[in-house]
C-alpha cells in the first residue's frame, strides 16, 4: 500500500514539474516566443471582421458617356453603379492586344461615343482584377496594373470595344474578344440618361450641373485600447516594455517589434524590422499579404477599398481607404487629414512580409448614427469656385468626400468637395 502511494506521489511530482517547466519556458514575461509561428498571433475579436480581398477591389467612380458630349457619374453603392458593375463582372474579356494610348482619339470617343469608364484611382494589378472580372490575360498583360477600363461602342463598328489602361500612362490593352454587344453598352449607358448631368473640358474631372446630395452623419465614437493592439500584434503582450517619448508619444516594445501610439491624433504605428522575408513578391502578392495581415491584426472597422500598391525603393506600400455611405445615395472616401488621421490603413512590405502597419485607433458606431441630407454645390457656383482655386495651379481631379470632425465622444462625417491639383496637393470646398 505504501509503495502504491509513493508511486502516485512520484507521478504527481513529475506531472507538476512538467507543467511548471512549460510555464517557465513559454509564459514568463521576457521569455523568447520565437517558437510561435506568425499564424498564431492572438486575434483581437472586437475591432472588426475579416474581409475578402475581392470586397476591397472596386472602381472609385463610374463615368457614363452618353454621346453628344453628355456625361454622368455613378459612385460606389449607388443603384446603377451596383447594377452595371455586377453585369460587367459576369462578362468575359480575352485576346488582349497591346497598343499605344496615342492610337485613339480619346477626346472624340469621350464626346461622341456611348460608353462606360471605370476609374481605379492609382491602379489595380491585373492578377487581382482577375478576381472580380473574367479576364484571360497573356503573360505580358498579367504583369500590368490598370487604372481605367473604358468600354464603348462606335457608330461605324458592329462590336463593342473594351480598353484597359496601364498605369504607365503610354500603353493600353484592347480585348479583341469581349462578351459584350453594342446593344449591351447602350443599355448600360441608358441608365444614366435621367441622372444628374455632368460636364468636362478635358476629361480630367467632371462637374455636376446640379447640386449633389449626400448623407451627413453624426455617430458615437470610441478608441481601441493599447491593450487590444498589443494582444493583436505581439506574440506575448506581457513581455513588452513601455517607453514614453519627449513628444508625448508612447512606445511598447518586446525588443524586436515596436508599437508607437500617438494619443493626440489617435494613431498607431507598428514596426517589425526583424520580420523574415517571404521571398519573391509582386504587387498582387503583397496586397494579398497585406489583407491577411489586417484580417489577423485588427480587422476592418467599416468598408474599405484598395487605394494604392506602389513600390518605394526596396519596399512596397499598400494603402486601404475607408468609404462611408450606402445604397441608394452612394458611398464616398473618408478624408485623411494631418490633424486627424482617420479612414486610412497603411502597410509596408519587404520581400512579401509586412514590416510596418499604421491605422487609426478611432472607431465609430454607424448603427447608432443620426443622418441628414446635405447638398454640395454644383453648376456655375462650383465652376466659379474652381476657377478661383485653380488660378495658382491646374486641377487634376474633383471628388466628393467625407471630412471627419470629432465632437466630444461623437464623430461627424461632413460632405465636402476634394480638389486635387496636378502636383498632388489638395484642398476641400464646402
Q: What is the tally of beta strands?
A: 25
What structural class should be given to the helix and strand makeup?
A: alpha+beta
Taking all Cα atoms into account, the compactness measure Rg is: 26 Å
Task: Let me know the largest β-sheet.
Answer: 9 strands, antiparallel
User: Please, what is the CATH homologous superfamily of the largest domain?
Assistant: YycH protein, domain 2
| CATH architecture classification name of the largest domain | 2-Layer Sandwich
Count of domains? 3
Q: What is the 3D shape?
A: globular
Approximate helicity band: 10-25%
- Assembly type: single chain
Please mark out the parts with pLDDT under 50 across 5 or more consecutive residues, or reply none: 1-6, 9-15, 17-45
Using the coordinates above, name the CATH class of the largest domain. Answer: Alpha Beta
User: What is the residue-mean pLDDT, rounded to a whole number?
Assistant: 87
Percentage beta strand? 35-45%
* First-residue to last-residue Cα separation: 90 Å
- Tell me the number of helical segments per DSSP (H or I, 4 or more residues long): 9
CATH topology of the largest domain: TATA-Binding Protein
Amino acid at each position: 500500500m505504501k509503495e502504491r502511494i509513493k508511486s502516485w506521489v512520484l507521478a504527481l511530482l513529475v506531472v507538476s514539474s512538467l507543467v511548471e517547466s512549460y510555464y517557465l519556458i513559454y509564459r514568463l514575461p521576457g521569455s523568447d516566443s520565437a517558437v510561435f509561428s506568425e499564424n498564431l498571433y492572438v486575434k483581437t475579436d472586437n475591432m472588426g471582421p475579416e474581409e475578402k480581398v475581392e470586397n476591397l477591389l472596386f472602381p472609385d467612380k463610374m463615368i457614363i458617356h452618353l454621346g453628344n458630349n453628355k456625361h454622368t457619374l455613378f459612385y460606389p453603392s449607388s443603384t446603377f453603379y451596383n447594377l452595371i458593375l455586377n453585369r460587367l463582372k459576369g462578362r468575359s474579356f480575352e485576346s488582349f492586344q497591346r497598343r499605344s494610348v496615342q492610337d485613339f482619339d480619346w477626346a472624340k470617343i469621350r464626346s461622341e461615343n456611348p460608353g462606360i469608364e471605370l476609374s481605379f484611382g492609382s491602379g489595380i494589378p491585373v492578377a487581382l482584377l482577375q478576381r472580380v472580372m473574367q479576364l484571360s490575360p497573356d503573360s505580358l498583360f498579367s504583369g500590368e496594373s490598370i487604372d481605367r477600363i473604358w468600354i464603348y461602342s462606335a457608330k461605324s463598328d458592329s462590336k463593342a470595344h473594351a480598353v484597359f489602361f496601364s498605369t504607365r500612362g503610354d500603353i493600353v490593352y484592347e480585348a479583341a474578344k469581349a462578351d459584350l454587344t453594342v446593344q449591351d453598352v447602350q443599355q448600360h449607358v441608358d441608365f444614366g440618361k435621367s441622372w444628374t448631368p455632368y460636364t468636362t473640358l478635358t476629361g480630367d474631372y467632371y462637374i455636376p450641373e446640379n447640386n449633389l446630395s449626400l448623407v451627413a452623419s453624426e455617430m458615437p465614437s470610441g478608441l481601441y485600447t493599447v491593450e487590444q493592439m498589443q494582444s493583436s500584434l505581439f506574440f506575448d503582450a506581457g513581455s513588452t516594455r513601455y517607453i514614453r517619448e519627449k513628444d508625448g508619444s508612447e512606445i511598447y516594445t518586446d525588443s524586436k517589434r515596436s508599437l508607437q501610439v500617438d494619443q493626440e491624433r489617435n494613431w498607431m504605428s507598428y514596426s517589425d524590422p526583424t520580420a523574415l522575408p517571404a521571398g519573391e513578391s509582386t504587387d498582387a502578392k503583397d496586397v494579398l499579404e497585406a489583407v491577411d495581415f489586417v484580417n489577423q491584426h485588427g480587422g476592418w472597422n467599416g468598408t474599405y477599398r484598395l487605394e494604392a500598391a506602389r513600390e518605394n525603393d526596396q519596399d512596397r506600400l499598400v494603402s486601404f481607404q475607408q468609404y462611408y455611405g450606402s445604397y441608394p445615395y452612394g458611398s464616398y472616401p473618408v478624408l485623411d487629414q494631418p490633424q486627424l488621421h482617420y479612414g486610412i490603413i497603411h502597410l509596408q512590405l519587404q520581400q512579401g512580409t509586412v514590416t510596418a502597419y499604421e491605422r487609426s485607433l478611432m472607431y465609430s458606431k454607424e448603427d447608432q448614427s443620426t443622418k441628414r441630407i446635405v447638398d454640395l454645390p454644383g453648376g456655375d457656383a462650383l465652376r466659379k469656385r474652381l476657377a478661383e482655386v485653380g488660378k495658382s495651379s491646374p486641377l487634376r481631379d474633383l471628388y466628393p468626400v467625407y471630412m471627419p470632425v470629432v465632437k466630444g465622444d461623437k464623430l461627424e462625417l461632413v460632405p465636402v468637395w476634394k480638389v486635387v491639383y496636378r502636383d498632388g496637393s489638395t484642398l476641400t470646398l464646402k
